[in-house]
Recover the amino acids of this structure.
């Protein structure tokens, strides 16, 4: 579905010289390599997490795949076409949903934007009604579509953006920070929506997000990019296995206990009745659990991996 | 074609619904335009109280220049109002969403914000122009040439607006470019003969204000030679091809700001 070979994007920016005459008549430019020799393949029906720090080159790569930006060099084929040619047949099969971009008409209700999309994408009446009703059902937002966009909250607006962006049921969807700035309930609703959309419409989904929880919950494959280069391209489980050096034992106490008993087992990373969290190496787990069973009255005990944020942080420290 | 026209109409409808939300703004906008028109018309009237001819043109002919200028200028504002808002699309990165749609981007960024308010002004300009033209001696051939050169003028304004869009992408500067364009085009309110050389030559052959604003009326009153008529169509074609070339370069250089 996507084949990128030695993809490169260089931005040219003007350097200010604190001299208005030089800035006008003798401009100096700096070249910034945003994407540097990136190659990857993406198959149909994959859901891929594309992560990296700010300025890593994630969005630039995605924008080249969508045909918004022209690559400086390299070969790119998306849905068997060169995306920058912007063929209408290609554009009808893709969608780019950006958490920081708005395509809805600010002063009018979302239905007006939906009707515009229906005309642009040449969606039949029956298909339009069916898709809108399905997407509204998944997002549970029937009461929002008739309100002017300017009166909606950020989370509500994002739901309308998703419907407007996906009305034509694209085969390939780029989600760029779809949960940015949203509260935890809205984040969860958007994640659920992405999962369900991909399942129902068999779409290929590429997701970038700074909320690694989005990626952990949705993606099976992970591409990590930094300073324009791909550092990791493999399964999410593999990176967790490889870089999760410690586990967390979480206990819910059934009765209060003294600090001494807890500290005799191991110094906790968190202790506030009824919760205790011990961070341990995998080899220590049997022994610690044995001690907990003997000394602590608990109603629940779970062993969890480190947070995805910690794992990715470890990955960046080691790479 | 039919689909493009339907999309164009939807954009126009949405633009009108958005504009009509601020009723006081609509009222002030219309009043401002009418006052400006009346003052300029009065200026022509005032000039002709002191002289019978302006560079060989009668009052009716001079009024026709002014009215045709207003018609071309207003039609271009009706169609290309969205160009005035283009800077925001570029600097906010919202242009990304336009480039992703399966229609030509000009449908959105060039003619996607039809200004219905100016449409109300075209009707009186048109009626007054017909009244002024009825006092001018002309032939069917001259009327035909006038229509062709009028369409040609609109074609040139289209090209100029495409150039403004391209420069908007390349430099993120739209407001000043469009103001410079409007100031220069504004010099075509009166017959080009009122300017001396080399200004007249510059406004004919380099910045074709005369081709846009003066040539249609000159053709109507039989004062435009065949060479200049031919030149009008050649220069409009060159500017159009050049504007599309610049637009394509701009798209290649587009950096998608604000991401």
């Amino acid at each position: 579905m996507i084949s990128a070979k030695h993809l490169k994007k260089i931005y040219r920016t003007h350097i200010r010289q604190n001299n208005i005459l030089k800035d006008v008549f003798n401009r100096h430019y700096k070249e910034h390599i945003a994407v540097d020799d990136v190659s990857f393949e993406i198959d149909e029906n994959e859901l891929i997490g594309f992560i990296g720090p700010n300025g890593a080159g994630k969005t630039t790569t995605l924008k080249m795949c969508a045909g918004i930006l022209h690559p400086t060099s390299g070969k790119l084929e998306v849905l068997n076409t060169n995306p920058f040619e912007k063929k209408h047949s290609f554009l009808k099969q893709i969608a780019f949903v950006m958490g920081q971009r708005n395509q809805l008409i600010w002063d009018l209700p979302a239905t007006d934007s939906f009707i515009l999309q229906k005309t642009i994408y040449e969606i039949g009446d029956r298909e339009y009604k069916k898709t809108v009703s399905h997407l509204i059902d998944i997002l549970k937002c029937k009461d929002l579509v008739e309100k002017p966009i300017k009166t909606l909250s950020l989370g509500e607006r994002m739901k309308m953006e998703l419907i407007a962006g996906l009305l034509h049921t694209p085969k390939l969807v780029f989600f760029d920070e779809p949960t940015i700035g949203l509260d935890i309930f809205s984040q969860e609703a958007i994640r659920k929506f992405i999962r369900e959309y991909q399942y129902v419409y068999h779409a290929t989904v590429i997701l970038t997000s700074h909320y690694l929880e989005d990626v952990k919950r949705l993606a099976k494959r992970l591409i990590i990019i930094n300073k324009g280069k791909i550092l990791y391209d493999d399964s999410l489980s593999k990176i967790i296995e490889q870089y999760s050096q410690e586990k967390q034992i979480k206990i819910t106490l059934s009765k209060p206990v003294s600090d001494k008993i807890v500290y005799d087992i191991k110094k906790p990373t968190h202790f506030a009745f009824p919760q205790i969290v011990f961070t341990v190496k995998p080899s220590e787990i049997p022994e610690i659990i044995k001690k907990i069973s003997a000394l602590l009255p608990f109603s629940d005990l779970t062993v969890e991996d480190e947070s995805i944020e910690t794992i990715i942080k470890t990955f960046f420290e080691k790479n | 074609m039919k689909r493009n026209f339907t999309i164009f109409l939807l954009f126009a409808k949405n633009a009108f619904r958005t504009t009509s939300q601020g009723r006081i703004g609509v009222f002030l906008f219309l009043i401002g335009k009418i006052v400006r028109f009346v003052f300029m018309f009065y200026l022509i009237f005032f000039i002709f109280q002191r002289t019978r001819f302006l560079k060989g043109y009668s009052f009716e002919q001079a009024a026709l220049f002014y009215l045709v200028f207003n018609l071309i200028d207003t039609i271009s504002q009706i169609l290309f109002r969205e160009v005035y808002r283009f800077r925001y699309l570029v600097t906010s990165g919202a242009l990304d969403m336009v480039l992703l749609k399966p229609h030509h981007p000009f449908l959105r960024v060039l003619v996607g914000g039809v200004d219905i308010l100016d449409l109300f002004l075209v009707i009186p300009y048109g009626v007054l122009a017909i009244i002024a033209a009825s006092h001018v001696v002309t032939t069917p051939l001259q009327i035909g040439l006038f229509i062709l050169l009028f369409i040609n003028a609109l074609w040139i304004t289209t090209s100029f607006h495409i150039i403004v869009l391209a420069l908007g992408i390349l430099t993120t500067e739209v407001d000043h470019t469009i103001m410079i364009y409007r100031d220069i085009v504004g010099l075509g309110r009166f017959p080009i003969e009122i300017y001396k050389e080399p200004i007249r030559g510059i406004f004919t052959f380099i910045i074709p204000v005369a081709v846009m604003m003066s040539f249609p009326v000159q053709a109507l009153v039989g004062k435009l030679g065949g060479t200049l008529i031919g030149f009008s169509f050649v220069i409009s074609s060159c500017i159009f091809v050049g504007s599309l070339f610049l637009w394509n370069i701009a798209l290649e250089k587009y950096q998608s700001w604000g991401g």
User: Anything to note?
Assistant: The first helix of chain A runs from residue 20 to 25.
